[in-house]
UniProtKB/TrEMBL annotation:
The lineage of its organism: Bacteria, Pseudomonadati, Bacteroidota, Bacteroidia, Bacteroidales. Its main location: membrane. Belongs to the OmpP1/FadL family. PANTHER family: OUTER MEMBRANE PROTEIN NMB0088-RELATED (PTHR35093:SF8). It is a multi-pass membrane protein. It comes from Porphyromonas gingivalis (strain ATCC BAA-308 / W83). InterPro entries: OMPP1/FadL/TodX (IPR005017). This is Transporter. It comes from the Bacteria. Keywords: Cell outer membrane, Membrane, Signal, Transmembrane, Transmembrane beta strand. GO terms for molecular function: long-chain fatty acid transporting porin activity.
Amino acid sequence: MRIKPSLKTMKKISAYVIGAALSVASGVPSVYAQGEADAIRYSRTELGGSARFRSMAGAFGALGGDFSAIGQNPAGLGIFRSSEVSATIDFSSISNQAAWQGSSETFNKNKLLFTGIGYVGSWGKANEDVSVNFGLGAKRVLDYERSFRIAGGEQKFSVADYVAAQTPGKANPSHFNYNGLESSWLTDLGYNAGWIAQLPGGYGFESIFKYKQNGEYQIFGPSSTAFDLKETGHVWNYDFGLGINIQDTWYLGASMTYSDLQFDTNTFYQENFSFNNGAINDYLKLENTLSTSGSGLNIGIGAIYRPADAVRIGLSYYTPTWYWMKSYYRAYGSSYYSQGVDSNGQPLPENLYFMSSQTPESYNTYQMSSPGRFVASLAVVAGKIGLLSMDYELESYGQIKLKDENGTAYVDNKFISEDFGSRHTIRLGGELRPISRLSLRAGYSHTSNPIKNEKLKAFDGSAQVTVFPMGAMPHYELPGNSYTVTGGLGYRFTRNLSGDLAVIYRNEKSYYYTFGRMVSDDPNPANVLEVESPAPAKLTRSNFRLAMTMSYRF
């Protein structure tokens, strides 16, 4: 399909070409090393912490009194009147449902996890005007554990069309050797694996998958497709904070958090070109491996004000997490094409039907800053009977930044600010004490989709916005809404020892594209090729957790 692309699309692709040249000049070993979808992935958050904290959906910004609240408002450390140590384990049951082209599959994973430990030390007595507490601990705040498989039927375009359109028209195929001088790694892989060929005349590229129809060879899309993904990884936060209690009216706090990120993924994509009742069985295959590790640091400050015994108001701010990242990646591509002909129009011998290529195993080091967070909180405490609390959390995803190891900004930052905006989270929590030793709890939270570009979140058909993923990986994912429903109970066995249980159910939507939209750079508008993406797979990740925390006060 040859149509005239939008001016904005052409500007975006042109900016990437310029960015590619700058990447090569700065020594980045592959073009399009990071993309906006990758930055969004590494900025994800989930509800982590103690069973008590999570049983109320994390609505602790104005409450404190739990070490995990250091992630909502560090001033909550000032609420403690004694020292405490706690540890948490989880049983996790994850269900991943993938729906694509009318079919749906579900993949389940169960595991037992150690998810956190915390210590709070109390300095000063409760009857003094000022007391100071400190806290330190670790908690697992995110799991990347996921696998799914999708399969579909006929597609209008192939990933070979996508690669052909991405390839600069005047590029010289003799330079397609993974050095990034004229093209991306995906172009180099696609050409060397036999997916694309240069057009007659030496300008532009096209898919190799041509088949005879009505006496003429025409480019066909695949007759069927399949995609497999497996992800593993985690984010652990290591927290240290100080909290001050001033006359039981003002509580002030500050925290520092070190984040450890690990993400690993393997993907396999195949297109089949089966025609003439099985007489032709050609194919294209692509495998990608990516491993990313990161270390980050952020700082939080907060305050809680108690204007009356029953009312608490909290405000806190957390800086972006400044990450130092390192990604290793490699890819393998292959094709089997039985309809090739030589320069004289004669069929090629069978030993030339199969072609393959593998990228070098390479790495890239870079910097990333995740969104900062602002939290406003309100709680009403009814003595020893119970309480209600609410948190509002604001994150600006449009402020995510990517830089190379020398601090030079990536061109992706412009598109992140154009495509993504604010993410809003509402947390509600409640606790009821029917007897002095027993507490019953419940909570709910809802998180909005941070995409602000309306065209980017048109998920019902082909992608309307060009998105550049990482390296030789054409696949990418965009976030949707999520919500969490929680409940639990706590029981104080003795004056010092208590136990808490929490049930957490999280439902998260996202949308996965096997490849995106792409426009060729032909100077003749009549010849510009605009490749339409397949509709995205609609993913639903459901995570049921049973958490248990044991705490000892002294």
